[in-house]
Write a structure and sequence with these properties.
alpha/beta, binds adenosine-5'-diphosphate, globular, UDP-N-acetylmuramoyl-L-alanine:D-glutamate ligase, four-stranded mixed sheet
């Protein structure tokens, strides 16, 4: 069982030839409405890898919120701790995706900003029954910390994906068993520039010194740097054709959490997660692109 505390967003995806200039009106290729939000994406990834997943989150009482809840149901995610807030908008992300696969994103956080300590308290027994807690930072930090504290008390493993990047104290990092960061997050948290395996190694060492248990730095098509207390190594990414990198990181984190909860060793868990993330890169959108376990295992065997 995995408990996820995090965000739910509706993604409005515009496929466009190139990024617009300020003041410019640009004709796009197409528009897609896709279920997203880091919390929901990671919950969906975990569910598609076969875990029983509960999501603690907030949506507004609008059509987007209903649609997002319906999507969670289809993935058999327990949404009994998703609070529907009256007179509030569900989180929305406007995503511009150009011909080169680059994306620019604007976010209106809506109901996600209202996830509070009481939401965590309501879900306390659900969290306590899980094996692992998975969090990101698209919901208020105080709520995330509250969830991490109750997870620690119930002896759960804690996986934190500190995205969007935000500075965190050593005390917070010390609560984290597995810290999964991309280049931006690694740089902000370590104070070092991160662009390749060598710099990722330096940043990971800083984050371990600051208290994090295992640190994983994801480096897109390069792969990952893994720093555990007793060993550190790099693993290459799978080679795939890039369509849209949205949710690559979320797929990695959700799949990694399942592998760790199942007791896979660290290296195997990382390759499992990378296999899932690489498949996500080959499809458009957030939750639409997250693969199922069978495909992930098949790619690992090839
Ligand atoms: P984020 O989306 O958070 O910035 P990354 O871009 O680092 O995260 O991607 C997370 C993981 O997804 C990578 O470590 C890698 O395993 C996989 N991935 C991302 N981009 C590619 C790619 N172009 N080819 C293969 N795997 C990729």
């Amino acid at each position: 069982k995995i408990a996820v505390v995090g965000s739910i967003n509706m993604d409005l995806v515009f496929k466009i030839p190139r990024m617009p200039l300020p003041g410019e009106t640009l004709m796009g290729h197409s528009f897609h409405l896709v279920h997203g939000g880091k919390g929901a994406n990671q919950a969906v990834a975990a569910a598609r890898m076969g875990a029983a997943v509960s999501l603690v989150a907030c949506v507004g009482d609008d059509a987007n919120g209903q649609s997002c809840l319906h999507a969670l149901q289809k993935d058999e995610i327990n949404a009994s701790h998703v609070r529907v807030i009256p007179d509030c908008a569900t989180g929305v992300a406007g995503i511009l995706l150009d011909d080169e696969g680059q994306n620019s994103i604007v976010l209106a956080t809506g109901a996600n900003a209202l996830l509070d300590l009481a939401d965590i308290d309501c879900a306390d027994s659900t969290i306590a029954q899980a094996k692992l807690l998975l969090c990101q930072l698209e919901t208020p930090l105080a709520s995330v910390l509250h969830a991490m504290a109750s997870a620690k008390q119930a002896k759960l493993k804690v996986v934190l994906n500190p995205a969007p990047a935000q500075k965190l104290s050593d005390q917070i990092l010390a609560q984290v068993d597995y810290l999964v960061v991309n280049e931006t997050e690694a740089a902000l948290l370590s104070g070092l520039a991160v662009c390749d395996l060598a710099t990722a190694q330096l940043a990971a060492a800083v984050l371990q010194q600051r208290g994090a248990g295992v640190v994983i730095v994801t480096l897109g098509a390069i792969g990952i740097w893994v720093a555990a207390p007793d060993q550190a190594y790099s693993l290459p990414a799978f080679k795939v054709e890039v369509v849209d990198t949205t949710a690559a990181g979320d797929t990695f984190v959700g799949s990694f959490a399942v592998a760790i909860a199942e007791g896979m060793d660290l290296c195997a868990a990382c390759m499992f997660a990378q296999s899932a993330a690489a498949l996500a890169v080959t499809k458009l959108g957030a939750q639409t692109s997250i693969p199922y376990r069978q495909a992930v295992e098949q790619q690992l065997q090839n």
